[in-house]
Amino acid sequence: MPVSLTAAEYIRSILGIIVFFLMLLLFTPFIFLLLIISLGRLSSFVVESIAPLIVKPVFWTAGIRFRIEKRTDPIPCPAVFIINHSSSLDILTILALGLPRVRFVAKWQLQYNPIFFLLGHLTGQVFIRREKSEKAVATLKKNVSRLKRKNLSVMLAPEGSRKHPGIIGPFKKGPFRMAMDLGYPIVPVYFDGNRELSSGGFLFTKSGSVTATIHPPVSTDDWTLENIDQHIADIRQRYLEWAGISSEEENLQMSTQT
Questions:
Q1: Could you provide one GO biological process annotation from this protein's UniProt record (predicted)?
Q2: How far apart are CA 240 and CA 256, in angstroms?
């Protein structure tokens, strides 16, 4: 259901978008210089420390109170982090997490923005064509060796797109196969509030609170091709529980929206 915004919230959202791109313009030369001087070795520093700094004033402008709740300490690294993806606001909350040594899997179209293209490739992010599943899988497989070699974590949205039926959409197998190939644990991250504040266009959002809960890791040591589907279903069930919705209610919503 679309989120209804007041005139004041539209104004704050527009100002937030402007602030976001101004912060990107301001920090891009600095990031570029850091990466050149360090020969790319400070890529993780950019993701862990500078990215949260960039989005902090955007949250303040848009009237969003962002909080991180850790239910695992320390945060596992390396790991495959997965998120529930239902809002354009996810772009900001992902950057605000500041997870250790993480790289993001993002949709190919983000590269059409020259700033995202430059920063994404300089820091080693992964861009995939979600609408072409075979190419997406090939891209993920190609990056497995790089992530493993550099001891990097990765973050993906198993729903694929934010435009899906239901509260928690069907989970694709790619992120979980990637975790098996890497030998990494799965770390579920649940965003509570993103969907309620923003469901429409880029960063148009209501004011309010968002909580990112980082849950304990799920080992993939005993996962096989024969039992992976059940493991995926079990993890998705956790997301449904965190969203406060039963499987029956979710199936009904998905059937009425397809």
A1: phosphatidic acid biosynthetic process
A2: 17
Summarize pLDDT for 68-106 with one digit per residue, the tens.
999 999 999 999 999 998 788 898 999 999 999 999 887
Tokens of 4: 């209804």
DSSP state of 76: P
Q: Within 10 A of 13 (CB to CB), how many other CB atoms are there?
A: 23
C-alpha atoms less than 13 angstroms from C-alpha of 131 in its C-beta half-sphere? 3
64 within domain boundaries: yes
Which structural domain range is residue 217 located in? Answer: 7-257
Say if 1 falls within a structural domain: no
Tell whether 182 is covered by a domain.
yes
**C-beta of residue 127 within 8 angstroms of C-beta of residue 103:** no
Structure tokens at 222: 């005993």
Is-contact 151 78, C-beta < 8 A? yes
The two three-digit tokens of residue 199, written as one number: 């469901």
2 is a domain residue? no
* Calpha distance 49→96 (Å, rounded): 9
Q: Which two tokens stand for residue 241?
A: 């529980």
Q: State the total domains in the chain.
A: 1
